[in-house]
Design a protein that fits this description.
The chain is an alpha+beta fold. 19% of the residues lie in helices and 28% in strands. The protein has helices at 56-59, 67-78, and strands at residues 10-16, 21-27, 34-36, 42-48. The chain is elongated and about 60 Å long.
């Protein structure tokens, strides 16, 4: 690797807001917020909305999405699609 062109990697705590889970890993992400980890050391903390702890693909849970209501609203606003002519 060329010296001086790569960002500095350091320990950072990522905190998943949806699941209430935190994990410590190395990252180049910058943050002004800090949090004390389990070993008593203070690390920068980055808040994320979703991670593997709360993502439906990894957890196997599903979320209810009102697709029917969205489709009805779309059709009301823009009309029904024209039928295909053959």
């Amino acid at each position: 690797m060329k010296p001086g062109i790569h960002p500095v990697s350091r320990p950072v705590v990522f905190r998943d807001r949806a699941a209430g889970v935190s994990f410590l890993t190395r990252s180049t992400a910058r943050s002004t917020a800090t949090a004390e980890w389990q070993d008593g050391t203070t690390y920068p903390v980055v808040d994320v909305e979703i991670s593997s702890a709360s993502h439906p693909f990894y957890t196997g849970t599903t979320r209810v999405v009102d697709t029917a209501g969205r489709l009805e609203r779309f059709h009301r606003r823009y009309g029904r699609p024209a039928t295909a002519r053959g």
